[in-house]
Amino acid sequence: MNDQMIMENLLLTTKGVCDLYMHGTIESATGNVQRTFDSALSDSLCMQGDIYQKMASKGWYPAQQAQQQQIDQVRQKYAGK
């Protein structure tokens, strides 16, 4: 297993953790439990962002810039909804 594969696995795992914490946050029965999940979610999102940035800097997770025409089409599609 090479470094890229390890980072991909870390990113996927962290995304899954974020999803679990998000659901825990929105379904919490008390404020104390919600704040605990929300704090864990925030930490996990930061970790996910760090992993993504490291992968992107190595060219392992390339992102494309959206064309202005595509942005305008999406904006028009959802305008007025």
Secondary-structure class: mainly alpha
How many discrete domains?
A: 1
Question: Mean pLDDT score, rounded?
Answer: 94
CA gyration radius, whole angstroms: 17 Å
Strand share of the residues?
A: under 5%
Total strands: the figure is 0
Helicity level, as a percent range? Answer: over 70%
Characteristics of this structure?
mainly alpha; single chain
Write the layout of secondary structure elements.
Blueprint (H helix, E strand, L loop, with lengths): L2 H24 L4 H27 L10 H11 L3
Helix pairs in contact: 1-2
Descriptive notes:
The chain is mainly alpha-helical. The protein has one domain (about 5-80). The protein is about 75% helix and about 0% strand. It starts with a helix and ends with a helix. The relative contact order is 0.12.
Question: What's this, in brief?
Answer:
With 81 residues, the protein is mainly alpha-helical. The chain has helices at 3-26, 31-57, 68-78. It has one domain.
